[in-house]
Design brief:
- It is a single chain.
- 20% of the residues lie in helices and 37% in strands.
- The chain has 347 residues and is α+β, with helices and mostly antiparallel strands.
- The strands form four sheets. Strands 1-5-4-3-2-8-7-6 form an eight-stranded antiparallel beta sheet.
């Protein structure tokens, strides 16, 4: 994955297929809310058992027998969700989750069937997480002239903490500039005009490419560059008095870096009202989606394992804390979890 791709949050804004392992890894701040199996991708991979992973940014599906067959649907790409009667290759006529998504100029239809009888968890999970994602856009989207200032007070988000408030900050978007106030939190930089607080801008750190000081016709100015994917704006500010500009720059760069290292994406779930939270370790589980398994399929793996043990007549059992008993050592590059997946896929 390129450095540019790694730094820009793309997971919620793209629809991609058959991704390499690096693209399936959780990015910093991304959470796994649900893991459900067996799920069939009834439209694209009918008859194939898979796993559905719902995160705070996207919905992932991958084949259990061949994780290289996978797809990623960004939550921002969702157009609609519903249930639909489909003809599953594994269950016949049944109710399934239907997702209509858009990316670039294309539209995509996805149909996911839960192979467990009378289970709708995949539908409630996806709909619930998408609802939480849509309700938390202020954490991730740049907003101009928004309703986030009321009576010259910032409407603070649930996970937001105010770190700094600077008066006497000029917005240099007009010929003469507009005097206002800058409010800095752990998730964004907000500026609003003192005369009319409806003239404002909210810049989440996730949308900011750089914060620097540049020379302008107003003298030295604080320049905030917004990523091209988020609008590509270049916003300039001047501090009054001028000597406050350098300390303000340092403070903003520090907060921006802290956010980059530990992002707050704002997508939270009320598990009492929505879906049951998975108990497994989030990152470890998702990484197994793209766990390297060479080119062998399930049958070849089992045959290779048996052949390996026959050739080595001195195989000594090892204790497995996962099972709580002694087992034959597994081949390098495999885990018990992946072996169980192989066993399931061959049934």
């Amino acid at each position: 994955m390129s450095k540019a791709k790694k730094n820009v949050v793309w997971e919620d804004r793209e629809v991609l297929f058959d991704l390499p392992f690096n693209y399936l890894r959780l990015r910093l701040g991304e959470k796994v809310f649900e893991r459900i199996e067996p799920i069939e991708d009834s439209k694209g991979n009918s008859g194939m058992k898979g796993r559905l992973v719902v995160t705070s940014l996207r919905v992932l599906w991958h084949s259990l027998s061949s994780p290289r067959i996978n797809l990623s649907i960004g939550l921002n790409c969702f157009i609609s969700t519903s249930t639909k009667v489909v003809n599953s290759g594994l269950r016949g006529a049944t109710q399934a989750l239907y997702i209509l998504a858009g990316y670039n100029t294309n539209r995509y239809e996805f149909v996911f069937t839960n192979l467990s009888p009378n289970c709708v968890r995949h539908y409630t999970s996806v709909v619930g997480v998408h609802k939480a994602y849509a309700a938390s856009r202020m954490y991730r989207d740049l907003k101009l002239r928004g309703p986030f200032i009321h009576n010259k007070q910032l409407r603070v988000l649930p996970l937001e903490k105010i770190c700094l408030m600077e008066n006497g900050i000029w917005n240099l978007s007009s010929e003469s500039g507009n005097l206002g106030t800058m409010v800095v939190s752990n998730v964004r930089i907000v500026w609003y005009a003192d005369v009319n607080d409806a003239f404002n801008v909210s810049m989440p750190y996730i949308t900011i490419e750089s914060i620097t000081i540049r020379n302008s016709k107003f003298g030295d100015a604080l320049v905030i560059v917004i990523r091209s994917a988020c609008g590509g704006y270049v916003l300039g500010f001047r501090a009054d008095p001028h000597d406050r500009l350098a300390p303000l720059l340092k403070e903003l760069q520090t907060l921006h870096q802290a956010y980059t290292e530990k992002p707050v994406l704002g997508v939270e779930m009320d598990w009492g009202c929505e879906v049951s939270r998975p108990t497994q370790d989030e990152l470890e589980d998702l990484e197994e989606i793209g766990e390297p398994r060479g080119e062998m399929g399930p049958s070849l793996y089992l045959a290779s394992q048996q052949s390996h043990n026959k050739e080595d007549t001195d195989v000594q059992p090892v204790y497995s804390s996962y099972l709580g008993l002694a087992i034959e050592p597994l081949k390098e590059g495999f885990t018990l979890k992946s072996l169980f997946e192989v066993q399931t896929s061959t049934n």
